[in-house]
Amino acid sequence: MDKVLEINGLTRTYKSGHGSLTVLDSVSFELMRGDTVSIVGPSGSGKTTLLGLAAGLDAPSSGHVKLCGYDMGSLSEDERARVRNKHVGFVFQSFRLIPTLTALENVTVPAELQGRKDAEKEARFLLEEVGLGDRTDHYPAQLSGGEQQRVAMARAFINKPDILFADEPTGNLDTDTGENIVKLLFQLNETAGTTLVLVTHNLELAAKTARIIRLKRGKLVPEQNEAVAHA
Amino acid sequence: MLKWLFTFAWRDSRGSRAKLFLFVTSMVLGVAALVSINSFGDNLRRAIDFESKTLLGADLSMESGEPFPATIEAIIDSLGGIQSRRTSFSSMAYFPKSNTARLATVRGQEPGFPFYGKIESDPPEAADTYLFEKGALIDGTLMAQYDIEIGDSVRIGNATYTVSGKLIQTPRETAAIMLFSPRIYVPLADVDTTLLSIGSRAEYEIYFRLDDIEDPDAIVESLSDTLEAHSIRADTVEEERSNWDQSLTNLYRFLGLVGYMSLLLGSLGVASSIHVYIRQRIQTIAVLRVYGASSHQAFAIYLIQALGMGLVGAFLGSAIGIGLQSMLPVILGDFLPVDVEFSVSWSAVLIGSAMGIGVTLIFAMMPLLDIRNIPPLAALRTDFDQENDRAKNKRAKWLLFGLMALLVTVIAVIQAPTLTMGLGYSATVAVVFALLAGTAKLVMRFLAAKPPSGVSFVIKQGLANLHRPQNQTLMMVLALGFGTFLVSTMIISESTLLGQIDLASTEGKPNLVFYDVQPAQVDSLVKLVEESDLPVIDRVAMISMRLTSVKGISIESMREDTTSELSWAHRREYRSTYRDYLTESETVLEGTFEGRYSGTGLIPLSVEREVAKQLEITIGDSLVFNIQGVDVAGYISSIREVNWRQMQSNFFFVFPEGSINDAPAFHVVMSRTETPEASAMIQAMVVKRYPNISSIDISVVLTVFQAIFSRISFVVRFMALFSIITGLLVLSGAVMISRFQRIEESVLLKTLGASRRTVLQIMTTEYFVLGVASSFTGVLLSLAAGWGVSRFVFEANFIIPFGPILLLIASVIGVTIVVGQLNSRGVYDKEALDVLRKET
Ligand SMILES: Nc1ncnc2c1ncn2[C@@H]1O[C@H](COP(=O)(O)OP(=O)(O)OP(=O)(O)O)[C@@H](O)[C@H]1O
Ligand SMILES: [Mg+2]
């Protein structure tokens, strides 16, 4: 299974008070195992929407998403959840740790949803990896933003996902901390062979990925232009 | 996986447990009420079963309004066993020491009764000795009122007794019954028999101890025809027990229904808190969904928390209920015929807990259902708004709503004394809730109206707070409003009832009645009254009679014919009068009132409306009465409406002048006194000269009514307290859950330059308005209910007791402010930095 993500003619429209608003318009692309890609575009261009659809968090108005071989459109919501649990990792701009759980417990959640017995061991290992081995029992409120994001990354990797989605993972962090996070992200991606999908405003960060997908008012901007610009 | 769900549910509750505990306290009192009342009820029934023989005090009793005729005496002889007779009658008791007199129920008792249980007296031995020393046992309230001491004398008729002791408890009588007419026990052998002459209302009773030789129920069964023919009531232990069982079960189950109301209110409060709690958990739930939790798992996590809350609430409620149970005998004691021992009924605890958990869970289901609609996408968007997805769950919600209605009804039917009452109760609850919610919404809308310019910032801000997002204002108004409604309705009914009696004592109307006056005594009594400078307002002859046939069919044959049902109107003894005029309280509805009898043919009669309905008679129908053994035939010439509320001698049948003037009659003489002293003086004077004449003062009636009503109203208020406290707990929970919002608001205000004082004033305004909205909602609705009660139950003028109601409103507002402020402690002192760092 080399194609990890296949997006085909993806369209998302929202009904508004009068008429409808097309937020994403016939977007198609494919990602292979181990690919790194960033999605860039101005605010409101549909990046988050695309990410949500690709991960099966939302249903498209038309078009198809095939994630790790599963046709997401033909699955029920709970079946999509199971696919996500097995194959997908997530990192959010605002971390989204569960405030009532310790760092360790936050990391174990995806593994425990799978019923894995080694959840805690694996979580400790990953927290060690991200440099928080001594903060396992701290609650999110006791951690800085950068530390919280590292916990979130440990959580994203615990089920060894085939693909990782990150929506502006450095958006809420200062430049230095952000860079550390990015370094860690690529490092984990490399060792685990995970496909990485990164939404960002930061062109410097985007340049670090092998591919850049540009969105403008919900439409894909042909990639050749980007290649030319780089050349 | 199940284990993980429990673990997660437990972990997720970290930091909120105090909050969740506070929410759950709302339902605790409902469970406590149900557990305590039902457990007490179980004990009560056990006590009645266990002591059933002491309820009657004998194996069998017979009662008659006249001395037992020869046929019955023969039967009594043949029944054998040990027998004890008793004759009861109303008469004036005169206390020489204080020169006062009071109408009382006198029981002339033969030794022996009660065969089971005993008469409790103070001193205890008096209950035995009074029978042999021409003594008297007197009701404790009466002794206190008239300052009677043991050793004093009391005169009844021409017999004088020495007070042997105070009456505490006797078989067949509760403290509440004794309030109507105080009891005096004297030896039967020493009763002045002239008091029992024709016309006076005496009850002849005989009690049997049969020692299991014969089955009393079988005896009653086999004698039923003979007994009925002579209008004799027979009672057995089994009958007495089942009567008490029925009425006491009705009483405690009814109270249970009032307690159930606070469970409903509390559960609604819990549900409303859970609703807000879930909204605060949206991000957690969304992240779980992103990482692969199914909607069912997310739902299950919070269902587990709700279940845990229900269990904690049920446990706590049961514990409090068991504690409260020990208070109930004190509160209900006056209504009970037996002493109830304290013991915990575990079945009541189990049922109460199950009801609590069931109702709380099904109410909590409504907000929990929303969890299934929280999409994983919410994790990507900070400004996720659930309202968009409302429509999605509509079918499930309607289904749930139906289930809720069903469960609420089923529990009501289980708790209610009868099926109809249970159904009626749930229908009433639905209507009351709808009305309360409607009124609350109206009041809220009124308050939400844009305040006129010039209103201070503090007030504007306080009002706005009630409409902050996720507010639970409506819920609180509902709970507090209901408690207020109950109390206020009681206050209004009480004042309407008492006002009615007051009205009767207005000028020109009689307030003192002498009755059982013999024809020969009338003129001299009138003279005595007039010589005391008191007016004689009315004098009426009263003739006792019974119906022997209606529309040509004899009562005898109707009794034998099983297809026709005899009503009270067929059976009762009537006291009728003759006169040629209508009184102020009478209006003719049909026919013409004929005031004079020509002397030949059927006598034209005037009948009261309700009796006419019961007897199924109309104008022209014929009746035959038996007056002292003489048949008197008449026909209906008019049907009257009678205003019974006037203190006046009112009659079911009025005969014309010249028809029964010569029949043996008793007379009633009415007067009016302006002071209690004057009233006491004339009564004492009359009873000394004419011991057979009874008298009653309106103030006595008033006190009796007041005493009885205040006991009932005390019980209802006690139950209303559950609802009010529940309302305050809901308020505490609501303040707690909005604590973070409040802290943010207060920090923001302070940052903008508001002083601590201003912030405090704003919060106080908020609680003040909440109190106003709740109390007004409750009072408005109770005015409607009170109007209904006075119009249709008491048929009286509607009187609004402004003083007590204003006091009630002020108390509700005051308590709301105090509880609100207590729960907001510390909110104003939070530093801005703390707020930015974390959510509490
Ligand atoms: N539920 C919704 N209803 C209507 N419009 C929506 C909804 N969700 C998103 N949109 C619109 O879709 C468009 C794309 O939104 P999206 O969040 O995908 O943009 P974005 O590229 O992620 O922007 P940003 O860089 O600011 O995060 C925006 O115009 C947004 O207003
Ligand atoms: Mg975005």
Strand content of chain B: 15-25%
CATH class categorisation of chain A: Alpha Beta
Quaternary assembly:
heterodimer
Specify the overall morphology of chain B. elongated
Total count of strands of chain A: 10
Number of helices of chain B: 27
What are the defining features of this structure?
heterodimer; A: 231 residues; alpha/beta; Rossmann fold; six-stranded mixed beta sheet; 10 strands; globular; B: 840 residues; alpha+beta; six-stranded mixed beta barrel; 27 helices
Structure description:
- The complex is a heterodimer of chains A (231) and B (840).
- Chain A has 231 residues and is an alpha/beta fold.
- Chain A has a single domain (34-55, 81-221), classed as 3-Layer(aba) Sandwich (Rossmann fold), CATH 3.40.50.300.
- Chain A is 36% helix and 27% strand.
- Chain A contains eight helices and ten strands.
- In chain A, strand 1 and strand 2 form a beta hairpin.
- Chain A starts with a strand and ends with a helix.
- Residues 225-231 of chain A have low confidence and may be disordered.
- Chain B is of the alpha+beta class.
- Chain B has four domains: 1-52 and 245-417, no CATH class; 54-243, no CATH class; 426-504 and 699-840, no CATH class; 536-671, no CATH class.
- Helix content of chain B is 54%, strand content 17%.
- Chain B contains 27 helices and 21 strands.
- In chain B, helix 16 crosses helix 25 (756-793).
- The relative contact order of chain B is 0.12.
- Classes of the chains: A alpha/beta (231), B alpha+beta (840).
- The interface between A and B is medium-sized, with 32 and 33 residues.
- The structure holds adenosine-5'-triphosphate and magnesium ion.
- Residues 14, 21, 23, 41, 43-49 of chain A line the site of adenosine-5'-triphosphate.
